[in-house]
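[job 4471] stage=fold_predict status=RUNNING
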Amino acid sequence: MNSDRRQGRRDRNEARQRPYGDNGRQPRKGRDDGRRFSGEPEVTAGPEIQADEKNDEDMLRVEGRNAVLELFRSGKTVDKLFVQDGLQDGPVLSILREARKQETIVTFVKKERLDQISVTGHHQGVIAQAAAYSYAEVDDILAKAREKGEAPFIILLDDIEDPHNLGAIIRTANLAGAHGVIIPKRRAVGLTAVVARTSAGALNYTPVARVTNLARTIEDLKKEGLWFVCADMDGTPMYDIDMKGPIGLVVGNEGEGVSRLVREKCDFTAAIPMRGEIDSLNASVAAGVLAFEIVRQRR
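[job 4471] inference complete, writing structure tokens
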């Protein structure tokens, strides 16, 4: 008898967890039970997720509530949305409303399924799958500055390998009003799911261009009137450098800094004054400090 009672409790719990009850149907329109979806997007209740979806290089997977919501609000096409079954709080309902507007396919799955397909390990109950992120062109970044009537402000990254650093720098670039970020195609991290999540949605608004040769790109941008300042601990104190006009800020990787060839193409080297016992900053922190010194000077 005890086993029958336990089985009954399990059955009731499973019924509560199913999005639309035993038959898998959607609720009728107008029913306000946190699952009202008006029938516009295609909604499925816990289908099998193919194993190859986790490693599909042709798709951009964005994870985490803020990042997913910003992905929708940016206007980019989201092909699929996976939502943890049972979540009905405000942020999740906001994401579902955005999905309804875009007629995105929504799939409710168990948390274990999300854990399986998650790249970052911090999905917060929602994972969006969009077409592969398309990189901008350098000309797009310059055009954005012209549209705003501002002197170009571009952040160039020399071989940043840590996706968390890249995501944080893209977020900083957006907040500092930079018109875009340029990264090299080789020996550097690209726009992965970890980068998208760490950027906290900024990746949807800040164009990122990828180039074959960073040094040559600097030369080309100089013809457009930009000056370049390179982050270097042995450089001139940043407060003593005029960074008000068209400017490119160059930040190197976590271990070796800016490469010699790229550094030689820069007009100035800027050092961040430090007073502690250690003598270096994380790449994303250094980029943030220098970027907001540029903001201070350009105000």
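[job 4471] summary: Confidence is low (pLDDT under 50) at residues 5-58.
[job 4471] exit 0
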